[in-house]
Design a protein that fits this description.
It is a single chain. The chain is α/β, with parallel strands linked by helices. It is built from eleven helices and six strands. Helix 10 runs antiparallel to helix 11.
């Protein structure tokens, strides 16, 4: 049974600095992913057994306090917060590493060629000391064995110093968890689908006021009501129901 009160969730943005080096799987959890994990066993397993789980939602932070969960996160840590922290850390290392033959490499696996091209162009300006490698997987609900092998081979060949997976939840978490042992890499791996579009500029992130007041979900709903109404209106109601009737007892 997937239960919020039993999960190990990172407590604050400051704790990102204390994450160990090496191969590390970092996932996020919000109300939508919580609801999905309650009915998707593999997704629940991926979130429960990854190395780090960050609270990408004010609802998760507040619910943990209310149900007296095992973890008591102090603040929301958005996927964007993780992205900025890891990229800035690697960029700093890249500045110090300019004399080395091999540049530090960040890989973006997921999304479309259009979005990835925009990411490469922006990264060249924002993170000039990093080499950016990309891979756009086939756009289909399920990958074939050949698809999976091609993705794994591309990641292993790149041997990145930081890897971002962006295929939307729960696909990205389930794929990464299922193929974790086949990835011969040494770096942090973050599953942060929406951030690909935010960084590329193809989707506008909520202004800071909305973010500070925990209303980024409402901003997205107002911007894309037809696509987001089920996730945020029905989904938030379902999350509240689950917390009240299935987490407190």
């Amino acid at each position: 049974m997937f239960r919020l009160k039993d999960l190990n969730i990172l407590g604050s943005k400051a704790e990102l600095a204390s994450l160990p080096e090496g191969k590390l799987l970092i996932n996020t959890i919000n109300a939508h992913s919580y609801n999905t994990a309650r009915k998707d066993g593999l997704f629940a397993e991926a979130l429960t057994n990854g190395d780090v789980l960050i609270p990408d939602g004010v609802s998760i932070v507040k619910a943990c306090r209310w149900i007296k969960a095992k973890s008591q996160p102090k603040e929301r840590i958005a996927g964007w917060d993780l992205f900025e922290f890891e990229m800035n850390e690697l960029e700093e290392c890249g500045v110090k590493n300019v004399s080395c033959e091999r540049p530090l490499t960040v890989m973006f696996m997921g999304s479309s060629e259009k979005v990835l091209d925009l990411i490469v162009k922006r990264a060249a300006k924002v993170y000039p000391h990093l080499k950016v490698v990309t891979y756009s997987p086939p756009y289909k609900p399920e990958f074939s064995e050949e698809d999976n092998k091609a993705i794994i081979d591309a990641i292993n060949a790149a041997n990145p110093d930081l890897l971002w997976i962006g295929m939307t939840a729960p696909k990205q978490e389930k794929w990464t968890f299922s193929h974790w042992d086949e990835l011969n890499i040494h770096c942090h791996v973050g599953t942060i689908g929406a951030v690909f579009d935010f960084f590329a500029g193809t989707v506008e992130r909520a202004p800071m006021w909305w973010q500070r007041h925990g209303l980024e979900w409402l901003y997205r709903l107002l911007k894309e009501p037809k696509r987001m109404w089920r996730r945020y209106i029905i989904g938030n109601a379902l999350f509240l129901f689950n917390v009240i009737f299935r987490e407190r007892w």
